[in-house]
Amino acid sequence: MTLLTIFLLACITFFTRYLFLEGRLPIRLGPNLKYLLSFSGPAVLTAITVPILFVHDQQLDIAMTNPYLWGGLAAVAAAYKTRSVYWTISLGLLLFVLTGY
User: Model-level pTM?
Assistant: First the structure.
């Protein structure tokens, strides 16, 4: 059952992407839909990272000793200041390691 689910999800992902990436198909997105889809990246990133940063052992962890929180804050600050993926990852990981994980 799990393999069937994975296969079906892979097919759905492939075909939805294929419809919009294949240039010969007459499917085009309107400007309003393109604008709405521009929010999907930040929304998915937030949905992935927030539980990693704030939830440990099935409990909310907002203590000052949370190394994930410090690493995330450093990464956000680095991304805002430098606009570089390399500096963002490096500074976030460095502060994560230095805060005691």
Answer: 0.65
For residue 94, pLDDT beyond 90: yes
Looking at the DSSP bridge assignments, the partners of residue 56 are 59
Sign of torsion, CA 10 43 97 83? positive
In degrees rounded to 5, what are phi and psi of residue 59?
Answer: -135, 150
**Pair of tokens at residue 35:** 């604008």
Mean of the pLDDT values across residues 61-87? 94
Mean pLDDT of the chain, nearest integer:
90
**Per residue, what are the HEC states of the chain?**
CHHHHHHHHHHHHHHHHHHHHCCCCCCCCCHHHHHHHCCHHHHHHHHHHHHHHHEECCEECCCCCCHHHHHHHHHHHHHHHHCCHHHHHHHHHHHHHHCCC
